[in-house]
Amino acid sequence: MTRALLLSFSPHGKAAQTFKLARALLTDLVPDAQVSERDYGSQALPALTREYATALTTPGGLNADAMALSEQLIVELQACELLILCTPVHNFTVPAALKAWIDHVVRIHRSFTLNEQFAKVGLLGDRRTFVLVSSGNARKGHEPDFLTPYLTAILATVGIHSVEFIYLGAMVRGEAAVNRALEQAHRQLSAAISAGL
Ligand SMILES: Cc1cc2nc3c(=O)[nH]c(=O)nc-3n(C[C@H](O)[C@H](O)[C@H](O)COP(=O)(O)O)c2cc1C
Q1: Cα 8 to chain center, whole Å?
Q2: Which residues form the Flavodoxin-like fold domain (predicted)?
Q3: 10 a known binding residue?
């Protein structure tokens, strides 16, 4: 049995095309998967509290109450063997909803630590991860992509290195374009998931 964590960071939540595609493929290709689905896009995580920020930045500032939500999200992430993040591009980068999840999950002394050279070292362990990225523009060429390098770096910070990106571009250019993007992503994701079974 594969424990999968499927997260949506779209304002459309579980109705986002990326989320529906990922869920359908998991049902078809990994029927024995135990899937935890979360909508952190339309039901956004709360803003960081002052207590949480203080706990993270004060030596010896451990504060279990302030870190309770962070702990819950980290435990949920740690428990999965297969992680799928479904996210739109917002203004060249990750949406605020995904950044909020990152700020709760990337926590010093818990999901990463510092080595003697003060470099960040991940503590969560690697796991197979897919990032389904939905954008209005066709992906290549026209605008900067801060999402891919940022997510690659921040996931590596907590120890997740096996990350594959699947891009659904031109999603605002009408039904035919959406269908083309979905078909291509379906092919890529099913091939990638099947290869890992
Ligand atoms: C606030 C906002 C900012 C956006 N910024 C970009 C952008 O920088 N580049 C882009 O290609 N598309 C951008 N888009 C378009 C979305 O990425 C696109 O519609 C995507 O398919 C939405 O995915 P979703 O339905 O899963 O949320 C933006 C959309 C919104 C609402």
Answers
A1: 8
A2: 3-191
A3: yes
16 C-beta closer than 6 A to ligand 1: yes
What is the residue extent of each domain of the chain?
Answer: 3-195
197: pLDDT strictly greater than 70: no
What's the rounded Cα separation, in Å, for the pair 17 and 20? 5
Q: Is 157 in the pocket of ligand 1 (CB under 6 A)?
A: no
How many angstroms separate the alpha carbon of residue 77 from the centre of ligand 1?
A: 25
Inform me whether the pLDDT recorded for 39 exceeds 90.
yes
Per-residue tokens: 87: 């996210």
Give per-residue pLDDT as tens, 110-122.
999 999 999 999 9
The string of pLDDT tens digits covering residues 58-101 is 988 888 999 999 999 999 999 999 999 999 999 999 999 999 99
In the CATH hierarchy, which fold is given to the domain comprising 3-195?
Rossmann fold (3.40.50)
Give the distance (Å) from ligand 1 centre to CA of residue 121.
Answer: 32
Indicate whether residue 10 lines ligand 1 (CB < 6 A): yes
> Is 8 near ligand 1, meaning CB less than 6 Å away?
no
Distances (CA, A) of 102 to 34, 62, 105, 117: 23, 19, 5, 24
The answer on pLDDT for 157 being more than 70 is yes
Return the H-helix or E-strand segment holding 122.
strand 120-122
Q: How far is it, in rounded angstroms, from Cα 128 to Cα 164?
A: 8
In this predicted model, what pLDDT tens digit does every residue of 171-183 receive, in sequence order?
Answer: 999 999 999 999 9
- Take atom 12 of ligand 1 and give the residue whose Cα is closest: 136
